[in-house]
């Protein structure tokens, strides 16, 4: 069975007035449009054409949440827990109502996520930069960064120590001085750190006085081109800065924030789940010359493929429940009943578990979301590849 889905954009302050409107070919919106949710999460279930909301149809069993995300200004710096951390946190907070501002865990699930750029440029902060590289960057910032440099030059888990210090409130004077120095450096620097400095200076303009500005200085500045993606595993500090993308995640609302937000920041809990292992986060680049791009991520909750259509119908097997989201052109999908259903840009179609294959037609671009594979299935696939 195929279900046509739509939803109303959520109007978070960081959203764009134009990105989603341009994608769908309509006039700019009066309010910021930040996210469109295609899933059965109770926070904002998708609308099913002629049949209420998706959670009423599925019972809230969809393992993933698919979104369109449109950022005109930076989102909060954040991190998500592992399954074990989420379950423990959920148990600890049993006595708190779901809308209690002191609650950190909204459910008992992890929240790995993948973002794929739809705009020609999508900026993000993804993971923590190696300390030696950040120390080189701070040389450009100058003496205002000496207190941070001293923290990073010590022994032990210096990144955890530095982030805790920045978010504690004790470092406010240093935060302001470092942010001002970054702004000055961004106006003159043209070397390897120019893009990163400009990004952090822009964040400082958007969030003056926020300690997350200096936390951002510790993170990898990643720029995606259209079709490129980044997978963000549990414990990885990240923030989206600007751009339009397709985002898929486990069906969870567990977020621990680390700056760039007026919302509550629980510093001890953030530090307890934060993975401070530094290093670059791999960019998932689309293959060339094929209609289908895979974005391989080893989680059971979701898998994502991008399909470009040039007029010839394409039939492909799917693991249900599968969702088809249109992002360009004029496309349609059909299942076992062979009835073609149009998928307008910015809308989706859900194929229930009884559909084992889908036929895509038209010209344009769609993304197909499905549940991911289990570890034992991935192991069998590896052995099969090796044998062949």
From TrEMBL:
Residues in domain Phosphomannose isomerase type I catalytic? 57-130
| Record-linked SUPFAM superfamilies | RmlC-like cupins (SSF51182)
**Could you say which cofactors this protein requires?**
Zn(2+)
Q: Is Transport one of the keywords?
A: no
Q: Name one GO biological process term.
A: carbohydrate metabolic process
| Reaction equation(s) it catalyzes | D-mannose 6-phosphate = D-fructose 6-phosphate
Positions binding Zn(2+) in this chain are 78, 80, 113, 238
For this protein, what does the record note about how its cofactor is bound? Binds 1 zinc ion per subunit.
One Pfam family, please name it.
PMI_typeI_cat
| Keywords in alphabetical order | Isomerase, Metal-binding, Zinc
This protein's GO cellular component annotations are:
cytosol
- Residues forming the catalytic site: 257
For the protein in the UniProt heading, the enzyme class is isomerase
Output the Gene Ontology terms for molecular function.
Answer: mannose-6-phosphate isomerase activity; zinc ion binding
CDD domains named in the record = cupin_PMI_type_I_N
Q: What NCBIfam families does the annotation carry?
A: manA
Which PANTHER family would you find in this protein's record? Answer: MANNOSE-6-PHOSPHATE ISOMERASE
Family membership noted in the UniProt record: Belongs to the mannose-6-phosphate isomerase type 1 family.
* UniProt protein name: mannose-6-phosphate isomerase
- Species of the source: Microbacterium natoriense
Q: What is the lineage of its organism?
A: Bacteria, Bacillati, Actinomycetota, Actinomycetes, Micrococcales
């Amino acid at each position: 069975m195929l279900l046509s889905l739509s939803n109303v954009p959520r109007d978070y302050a960081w959203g764009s007035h134009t990105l989603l409107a341009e994608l769908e070919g309509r006039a700019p919106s009066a309010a910021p449009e930040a996210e469109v949710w295609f899933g059965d999460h109770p926070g904002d279930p998708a609308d099913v054409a002629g049949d209420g909301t998706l959670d009423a149809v599925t019972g809230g069993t969809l393992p993933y949440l698919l979104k369109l995300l449109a950022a005109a200004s930076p989102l909060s710096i954040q991190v998500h827990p592992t399954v074990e951390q989420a379950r423990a946190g959920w148990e600890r907070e049993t006595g708190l109502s779901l809308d209690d501002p002191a609650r950190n865990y909204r459910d008992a699930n992890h929240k790995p996520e993948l973002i794929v750029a739809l705009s020609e440029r999508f900026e993000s902060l993804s993971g923590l930069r190696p300390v030696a590289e950040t120390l080189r960057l701070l040389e450009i910032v100058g003496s205002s960064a000496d207190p941070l440099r001293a923290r990073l030059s010590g022994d032990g888990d210096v990144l955890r120590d530095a982030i805790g210090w920045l978010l504690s409130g004790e470092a406010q004077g240093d935060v302001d001085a470092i942010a001002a120095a970054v702004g000055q450096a961004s106006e003159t620097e043209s070397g390897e750190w120019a893009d990163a400095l400009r990004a952090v200076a822009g964040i400082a303009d958007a969030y003056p006085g926020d300690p997350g500005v200096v936390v951002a200085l510790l993170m990898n500045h990643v720029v995606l081109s259209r079709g490129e993606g980044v997978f963000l595993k549990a414990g990885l500090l990240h923030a989206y800065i600007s751009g339009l993308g397709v985002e898929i995640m486990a069906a969870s609302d567990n977020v621990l924030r680390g700056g760039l937000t007026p919302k509550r920041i629980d510093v001890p809990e953030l530090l307890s789940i934060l993975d401070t292992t530094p290093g670059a986060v791999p960019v998932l680049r689309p293959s060339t010359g094929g209609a289908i791009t895979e974005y391989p991520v080893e989680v059971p909750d979701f898998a994502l493929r991008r399909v470009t259509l040039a007029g010839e119908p394409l039939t492909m097997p799917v693991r249900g429940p599968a969702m088809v989201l249109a992002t360009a052109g004029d496309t349609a999908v059909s299942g076992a009943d062979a009835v073609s259903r149009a998928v307008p840009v910015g809308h989706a179609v859900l194929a229930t578990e009884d559909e084992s294959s889908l036929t895509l037609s038209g010209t344009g671009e769609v993304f197909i979301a499905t549940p991911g594979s289990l570890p034992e299935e991935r192991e069998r696939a590896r052995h099969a590849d090796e044998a062949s």
